[in-house]
Amino acid sequence: MSKIAKAFENGKAFIGFLTGGDPTIEKSEEFIMEMVRGGADLVEIGIPFSDPIAEGEVIQEANIRALANGTTTDTIFNLVINVRKKTDIPLVFLTYLNPVFTYGLERFFARCEETGVDGIIIPDLPYEEKGELAQIAASHGIDIISLIAPTSEDRIKKIASEATGFVYVVSSMGVTGVRNEIKTDIESIVNVVKSATNVPVAVGFGISTPEQAANISQYADGVIVGSAIVKLCAKYGENAAPHIHEYIKAMKNAVRTND
Amino acid sequence: MSNGRYGIHGGQYIPEILMNEIINLEKAYEKYSKDEEFNNELDKLMKEYAGRPSLLYYAEKMTKDLGGAKIYLKREDLNHTGSHKINNVLGQVLLAKKMGKTRVIAETGAGQHGVATATVAALMGMECEIFMGKEDTDRQALNVFRMELLGAKVHPVTSGTMTLKDAVNETMREWASRVEDTHYVLGSVMGPHPFPMIVRDFQSVISKEAREQILETEGKLPNAVLACVGGGSNAMGMFYNFINDTDVKLIGCEAAGHGADTDMNAATIANGTLGIFHGMKSYFCQDEYGQIAPVYSISAGLDYPGIGPEHAHLNDIKRATYVPITDDEAVSAFEYLAKTEGIICAIESAHAVAYAKKLAPTMGKDEIIIICLSGRGDKDVAAIARYRGVEIFE
Question: What is the least distance, in Å, from the CA of B347 to any CA of chain A?
Fold first, then answer.
């Protein structure tokens, strides 16, 4: 069974994201542990990429900060090793195909297994192209998380039926970033996904407030928040830990109202 | 070829949010590329609006001066809007219109593709927004105003290296946020399938004409065909109908900036490695961790860290060769063509002229070179002046 399933065992899940190495690799370790203490059920760690085409400005800038201070795929693996000494929370990478491909697919997924990464989200890897990675990832027990978008329509069932770990439903058109209003009919998308798979369904993109989190978790098994946390890293830099803790706690409480 | 693959290259590596749109585009292209009415309409526009066929001009003075192969210039610079870009844009915007789109967006490097897109959008009554790296809006200020005159909105892109690659990123982000009424007019033979195929097909008119013209004039095929390569659209157009003529050498000229062995260049075949970026598997200038490298060329149109997947394949199977040309060589060729033939070509095209200057003297007088003169050089005059230490204002 997928190690990621554990994140969804205690009611509705809260999934937090940060870009590894922003502001420093040491601080990322501290912030991840703060997310765990704040109540996060799964942590997504971004491996920074020079050209993150699915990200809005907030995460783009975090990628630039992380790369500028010398963060690499290898320093991120070291971060995972250090985090794994302290917690067994499910950990998932978020990065683009090129850093994974260039590292060497076999080498990358072997390293994920060794260090204790449970899954990976790759925004520029659609269903049609995942064959190249799927077997290698599976042989190391790493889940490739499937994404579903508001435009997926007739593709939803096909994608969901092969999903492992969890299904990531993209709430809105466009790129990552805080939104005031989410207009997509999340409920009906989640229902179609659930008709095709028993894998948990989490919703992300644009979610930042406890109200939004409470609303979304009525339908979904989990809520994913990235830009709002990265904003705290940008605003408070090395001193972001208590702010992240408070924020995660408030969001987890909001999600819990639907348990 | 299946699934948009060229050997190991190509593919459709894009976010799920765009997949249905890309599939729709593929279906629409499949339908309309075989539709007689569509093709008649496009032919008429090519002829009456773009000014096709473009001339195949015998550069007699240049030929005599270099003392070797006969040199012909395929004059894409004489097309409406001043470059080969109009060939692809007329096709794609017409297709977008048939698909019911009311808005087009596009990236641009030098501004030639942006100008062509803004032009055709004006002609066909479409809303138009262009994304251009901030560094390029500074280098090519005249083209920015030109696009605005044509009714387009120009967005300077301030992310990353603020050049062509970042303009592509930003246009993809914009497309992902508004796909229903919007077509992305991709300007080169790159990106996810079906773009490399669509752009190549619309640009292949260059070699279709050139092949007929040279057979009519010389009664034989050329020995070598030269074109500059960034993403590679004019080169793919210039090569395509010669691919099966295996005696015709296909040579792409890459931007080597300060030198292919320096860290200031954009020579992807010389320095790139296999990667997956901007929707395609191909060669890219990148570091050991797959971070896309900041590239450099005096030419904004060649200042791109990748190359189209079909070029990568032609390189793999050794059907085409790719040579690096430095800024210095390109600028000298730009000036040489102006003084020798009275033609001011685009600095991009000057990369191909520069290689012809090296190649022609090594060939016999009975041999033939065709250079694709992909664009005109008015846009570059101020930059060339600055390169030579003269400050002029556009």
Answer: 27
Q: Is the pLDDT of residue A128 over 60?
A: yes
Distance in angstroms between the alpha carbons of the first and the last residue of chain A: 23
Could you tell me the domains of chain A? 3-256 (3.20.20.70)
Going by pLDDT thresholds of 50, 70 and 90, the confidence category of residue B134 is very high
Residue (of A100, A110, A206) closest to A149 by Cα position:
A206
Q: Distance of alpha carbon B146 from its chain centroid, rounded?
A: 19
**CA of B176: which chain A residue's CA is closest?**
A174
Q: Which of A51, A170, A174 sits opposite B292 (nearest CB)?
A: A51
Tens digit of pLDDT for each residue in B8-43?
999 999 999 999 999 999 999 999 999 999 999 999
B107 is catalytic: yes
Name the average pLDDT for chain B. Answer: 96
- Residue B339 among the catalytic residues: no
Residues on chain B touching A64 (C-beta within 8 angstroms): 160
Give the SS3 label for residue A172. coil
Q: How confident is the model at residue B1, as a pLDDT?
A: 40
Report CA B74 to chain centroid distance, whole Å: 14
Residue type, B35: D
List Cα–Cα distances, B63 to A205, A256, B18, B350, B366, in angstroms: 60, 79, 49, 16, 11
Interface test with B, best of A47, A128, A132, A170 (most B CBs within 10 A): A128
Check if the beta carbon of residue B383 is closer than 8 Å to that of residue B298: yes
Residue type at position A212: Q
User: How far is residue A141's CA from residue A139's CA, in Å, rounded to a whole number?
Assistant: 6
Beta strand pairing call for B279-284 and B9-13: antiparallel
**What predicted TM-score, i.e. pTM, was given to this entire model?**
0.97
Q: What is the mean pLDDT of chain A?
A: 96
